[in-house]
Amino acid sequence: MQAALRPFTHMQAWLAPTGQSGYYYHSELSADQLAWPQKGRHGYDGGDHIRLHYHTWTSNEGRLRNAWTLMWGGLGYVNNAIGDIESLDVSMIDGLTEEDRAIIISQLKVLRAFHYIKLMDMWGNVPIVTKVADPLNPETKPRSEVFDFVLQELLDNVEKLPLTSAENIGQVSRAAGYAMLAELYLNAEKWKGQPMWDECIAVCDKIISGQGGGIGGAPQLSPDLTALFSNTNSANPESLFQFQFSREAGFTFDWAGFFFGYDYMKEVLNVGYGGWNAFVVIPSAFDAFAENDLRKKEWFLFGPQYKYGTNIPVLGTEEYSGKPFVLVNSIRRESEGDLTGPGSMTEGEENSGARFHKYKSGTLDDPNYWENDYIIYRLTEIYFNKAEANHAQKQWRGYCRSCGAYQRVAQESIHRC
Questions:
Q1: Chain segment 101-116, per-residue pLDDT in tens
Q2: According to a count of CB atoms within 10 Å of the terminal CB, is the N or C end of the chain lower?
Q3: What is the largest CA-CA distance in the chain?
Q4: DSSP of 298-349, one letter per residue?
Q5: 352 DSSP 8-state letter
Q6: Under 8 Å between Cβ of 377 and 366
Q7: How far apart are the C-alpha atoms of 377 and 113, rounded to whole Å?
Q8: Could you tell me which residues come within 8 angstroms of residue 136 by beta carbon, excluding any fewer than 6 positions away?
Q9: What SS3 class is residue 375?
Q10: Which residues contact 390 (CB under 8 A, 6 or more apart)?
Q11: CA 104/CA 110 separation, integer angstroms
């Protein structure tokens, strides 16, 4: 069954923020919440991150080519596994039944659909390929046709998946399949050219009511902001689909490169890793959080940085070498006296921007140090999907923007998140 597991383990390379130039890198850095600005002598990298931020990419982007290779390679692993397992003589394999095989094939087809959701999101019109090297040079299909293929794959297979439970954490199970359908329906107006708000709301309700199962029976919102991303998050009842990482098992969820500053972060957090001083939170995105918003406190590193458990400042190593290191909500050359300018992607310094710190590994002496799983779908997202679909549905059907009816529906859902 290693063939069935290989596509899933490969997927973390392009989906999770583990340093690869895959889906995560491109989808996040081309949006409006994260950026990778040049910081002094570091981070220009041929202008790759700058072009992505300003949407001035070319037809010859090496990182985008890498994403294409990673994602299509993963799809090839899925197709290869489906073909191999469909051809097995089950009677020759101890412990494997026809029912087992049918479930595994359904899981793989749903995983293939997930690959296509992300491929379609990235490139729009892409080939539809279900067999390895057949054809050798497939033609691209319109995004609407790819959408129809993905939707049918999910409708044909999701109900055949086992219910999500504590026994199948990390596997492709029914709540995960429903979450994929919710994402697909929510984007139908863009991807298909036809809104599917009712379908989105209906499948969100299936997840919320527990019809897809859940790690805790039915999915439950996490009681605090940190538990779902902590180093004990593997069995968190809010998760619907996740990568199971484990430092102890030699498969660490290594987000440090993208999200953390240099080795001084070891002193700040009492951990064994530093990063590339890469991703920063775009100042306007950080400003969108109210000062009393708990997420602003729990999910970001900002302001003066101190050695763990003390009030001793950590010192900078570049523009602020030998001086207290303070993360600021700007991307400009403040060390050179620019305290009010708008800044730009080429004017960062070592301390520019708040840093995303949602996932926390714990300290070196923590028995669960760096045992975090990566959460792909969670219940909070489903509530937001339903809220957005409710909102859009009532707009689309002609509700007045100023009447407030759709706003109350959306707000009631969002406030639960």
A1: 999 999 999 999 999 9
A2: N
A3: 75
A4: HSEE-EE-B-TTSSPBPBBSSTTBTSB-EEBS--S-GGGT-SSS---TT-B-
A5: B
A6: no
A7: 15
A8: none
A9: strand
A10: 197, 201, 406, 409, 410, 413
A11: 10
197-241 pLDDT per residue, tens: 999 999 999 999 999 999 989 999 998 999 999 999 999 999 999
- H/E segment holding residue 4: helix 2-15
The pair of structure tokens assigned to 107 is 């899981």
**Structural domains in the chain, sorted by start:** 1-141 (1.25.40.390)
Tell me the pLDDT tens digit for each residue of 173-192.
Answer: 999 999 999 999 999 999 99
Neighbours of 284 (CB within 10 A): 10
Q: What angle do helix axes 98-123 and 2-15 make, rounded to 10 degrees?
A: 20
Residue 118, both tokens: 């992300």
Q: Could you tell me which residues are beta bridge partners of residue 246?
A: 251
Chain Cα centroid distance, residue 403: 35
238: which DSSP letter? T
Which residue type occupies 82? I
Residue 167 CA to residue 287 CA, distance in Å, equals: 41
Strands 34-35 and 280-281: antiparallel
SS3 396: helix
Identify residue 209 by its one-letter amino acid code.
S
